[in-house]
Structures are given as C-alpha cells and as structure tokens.
Amino acid sequence: xxxxxxxxxxxxxxxxxxxxxxxxxxxxxxxxxxxxxxxxxxxxxxxxxxxxxxxxxxxxxxxxxxxxxxxxxxxxxxxxxxxxxxxxxxxxxxxxxxxxxxxxxxxxxxxxxxxxxxxxxxxxxxxxxxxxxxxxxxxxxxxxxxxxxxxxxxxxxxxxxxxxxxxxxxxxxxxxxxxxxxxxxxxxxxxxxxxxxxxxxxxxxxxxxxxxxxxxxxxxxxxxxxxxxxxxxxxxxxxxxxxxxxxxxxxxxxxxxxxxxxxxxxxxxxxxxxxxxxxxxxxxxxxxxxxxxxxxxxxxxxxxxxxxxxxxxxxxxxxxxxxxxxxxxxxxxxxxxxxxxxxxxxxxxxxxxxxxxxxxxxxxxxxxxxxxxxxxxxxxxxxxxxxxxxxxxxxxxxxxxxxxx
Length: 405
Prior knowledge:
eight-stranded antiparallel beta barrel; 405 residues
C-alpha cells in the first residue's frame, strides 16, 4: 500500500509537469489556397520561420509577418499595414479557416498544407506557349462601365512566369505562376488583395479571367504588342477651369485639424498624396515617399497624405493610419479625409477642384507659390521594374527643379 501511494504521487507529479501539446505552426514551407470560386483556387506559398513569424512569397516580393496569435487550436496571422487577416484551425497538421476583411464584410475560405512548395500544380508537363514580353490588354472588354486598359509585362523561364499588369491607376504588383500547356496561371496575395489570373494563350493572343478574392471576377483579352504604352500618367487628372491650386482642411487626430494653408507648408514645395491604407499601390508609393522624406535634410519640401478609408468608424480609420505610419516610419502628416467608404466619387466631392479622383494613389505637386504644377495618377511600383526606376528618376528631377525655383 505504501509503495502504491508513492508510485501514485510520482505519477501525479510527472503528469502535472507534462507540457501541453503545442499548436504552433510547423516550421518550414506551406502551400496555401484561397477558394475564390467553386472551381478556382488562388495558391500562394509561405514559410514559417518561428512560432511568431512567417514569410509570404510573391515572385521577388517577401512579406514578413510578425503578427501571429494562438488560442487553443486557432491561429490568426495578419500581414503588415493591411486590415485583412487569416484565421484558421489546426487539423491533422494542416490549416483550415478563412481570410477575413471585416470592414468590407468579406470572407474567403482558406486552407494550407505543410511541406508543399509548388504554387500551382500543373495538370501537364507540357509548355506550349511563351508569354515573355509586352501585351496590350483590355479588362471587361464588352462592358463599357467596367472596361479599362492595361499593359501586361511578363518574363517566362521554362514553365515559370513572373510579371504584372500595369493599368492607368497602378499595377497588380508581384504576380507569379506557370504555363501549363497553353494555359497561364498567375497569383498574388499580400494581405490586402488576393488576385488570380488565368488565360488561354494562342501565340499572340490571350483570353482570360481575373478573380479578385471571391467578390469580383471579370474577363480580359490581350494581344502581343512590344511597343504598346499606356496614356501619360501626368495627363489623366487635372484642375478644373478656374482653379490653379487646391485647398483642404482635414483631421490628423480627433482634435487636431491640418490645412494646406498652415505655416508649415508656406513657401515650400508640397506633394499631396491621395491614398488609402488598404491600397497596395499606395503602400508602395508611401514606402518610397517616406524613404525620400526621411533621407532629405532640405526643409523646402513637405509631404501631406489624404487618407480615404473604408473602415466603418473614425476610430478604426485612425488605427489603420497610425499602423501604417509606424510600420513605414512615416514622419509627414496623414489626414483622415474620409471614412466608411473609399468611393472615388465621394472622394472627388472632398476635392471639388479636381476633374475626378481616378486612382488611389494620386499625387499633386505644388510649387512654393502654392500653384499646382503637376498631377500624377496612379503609381508604378517595384513590380514594374524599369517603370519604377523611371518614376523615381522623374520624381527626383522634377522636385529638385521646383525647389531651385
């Protein structure tokens, strides 16, 4: 009896000291899928590097995620800056859940399998087409209300494809995929947007479908055109007749209003950025502007951003703005111009001197006398390669010339 009691005590001690089984994500490569339609999935690859960090891969882009939380068997991770997050349950070593954007009431089914590093699983091992080069593209070609033009820029090595679509309002960032027979498949996921493109390629033509999450799908057509160029981004947005400048007053915080007429901006070159924290092209532009601003000691240049947020409340909108400023080390003011919608017609009502707000982002260049000298619509981000380099060179040259006036 005495020995039984001793044995029982030892058993209790060992049992009580045993660690609970960890539900942390397995370290290594995962293949994820977002169910965008009943038949189509959007794949992407991520690597878990620790219990509190992972990396999402889109061609040359690597997104570092450090916002990961655990609750029982549920895991939540959120990419930097953006509102969207993945919430999933660990089941048999894999993940199953949803990609969620609360402010837009959007939920996309999500799953992930450990140990697979092939973004797209090819149905064949045949490569019948090569899309390398430039393409003249039209989205929603038969719908006048939704129709818009684009330029496809692709590089293909074997069956692997990288590239992007440039539009008059920005680019679709880093796309990565495969050529499977004569079918091209490309995808990207950045925590804000989930894009899938599929297209049948026949020599110099393409016919495809574009899926944005599970809430939008549209057709597109394209033809090979190595000399094709989009309209000049400096000619699309302009001041209405009778205006030579802009003015506005919006809150930087709940109790602090900022106006373009404030002393801080007088006798200085000012770049006004129309943007949203939810917008990937705005993120790319904000990164560049922040780096430019923070590395210049010239006090004759100022930036001011106007945020048009779809967050449902002012408080959530300011939270998104503050998160963006902290993540990108933005030291110029970001004002809340609108919340509850990112509708461009509503945005144009806030800036009635513009012919329209065509794109997030849009940048307005103002000289030291307060006159608008140029308005640049959209942004060619780093995924566009040489176009991004051209923009940076043009930006620096133009701003330096304004400063010297």
